[in-house]
Amino acid sequence: MKKNAPIPTAIPLIIGIIAVSFSSIFVKWSSAPASIQGMYRLLITALLMLPFIRPHLAELKSLTRKKILMLFASGFFLALHFLLWMGSLKLTTVSSSTIILALEPVFIVIGAFFIYKERTSRVAMAGMGVAIIGAVLIGWGDIGVSRANLIGDLLSVFGTLAVSVHMLIGQKVVQQVSSYVYSFTVFLSATAVFAVYNAVCGISFTAYPGKDWAMFALLAVVPTVFGHLLFNWLLQYVSATTISMSILGEPVGSSLLAFILLGEQMTWFQIVGGMLAIFGLIVFLNADRFKWKPKGKQAAEPLKSA
């Protein structure tokens, strides 16, 4: 049973949705390479978490080699996600990239089926199919815009696959370590992966104007602390399905912000494809509510949330 939240859960949920919607805007506003943005975003977030690490030091010291390897693997795929997704924003529009990114739950279910043998309902599968058709329409529309837009869409797809692997690994690891230790070590691992990548590629660690450093800090504080970490905190009080629904708010919020702040326009393919993707995700995330139950058992067996 979930605990009672100290404040109405709608308040932090709305704050979180608005916060993550700014992520793509900050990426667009920075001229730094995606690998540098991702590295400093995660490094600054880990540094902000550092003052609160003392109660978790004993757990950190007791981590086994297997757990450390799992945490590093999760961090590796988180770094790969940021590298590909942030890179996609350099080539395609905010709306296309974030709508494709919102397909994360679909990829997770597919991965969970093959890795953990988890099954899903026919209604969820139907919603998944509609969402994928919507994403294909977005990519199809970008073919006529430019080759760069299409490559950006593909990078977003691969970035979504990477974050899905990160989540699937995390699904197992968080059962063995606290969420704070998980987040802190994964962020540090991803930062290390980025540092090695940047060093090997000869990318400068410091040659960036003040505006870029401001964007690095904003990426850490706004979408990461007030977005993803806030959602992790909310899991104590609301279901995972409720948190997952926030994924639908990001492409809508990001697209509106991109229109207002960046002057980006949406094509009809993006609008229709985006609407299909979001509708499919709504059906997918609420599939359990559509399950048929015999009349005699309806009162005794309440619907379960995913």
Distance between the termini: 14 Å
Shape: globular
Q: From N to C, what is the helix and strand string?
A: HHHHHHHHHHHHH
Q: Helical region count? A: 13
Q: Based on DSSP secondary structure assignment, what is the total number of beta strands? A: 0
- The helix fraction, in percent, is over 70%
The mean pLDDT is 83
Largest sheet: none
Percentage of residues in strands: under 5%
Low-confidence stretches: 296-306
Computed Rg: 20 Å
Domain tally:
1
**Alpha-beta content class:** mainly alpha
Q: What do you see in this structure?
A:
With 306 residues, the chain is mainly α. The protein has one domain (10-289). The protein contains 13 helices and no strands. The protein has helices spanning 10-21, 23-29, 34-49, 57-61, 65-88, 94-101, 104-116, 122-143, 147-173, 179-201, 210-234, 240-262, 268-285. The radius of gyration is 20 Å and the shape is globular. The two termini are 14 Å apart. Residues 13-139, 151-284 form the EamA domain. The chain crosses the membrane at residues 7-27, 39-57, 69-88, 94-116, 123-143, 149-169, 181-207, 213-235, 242-262, 268-287. It is a multi-pass membrane protein.
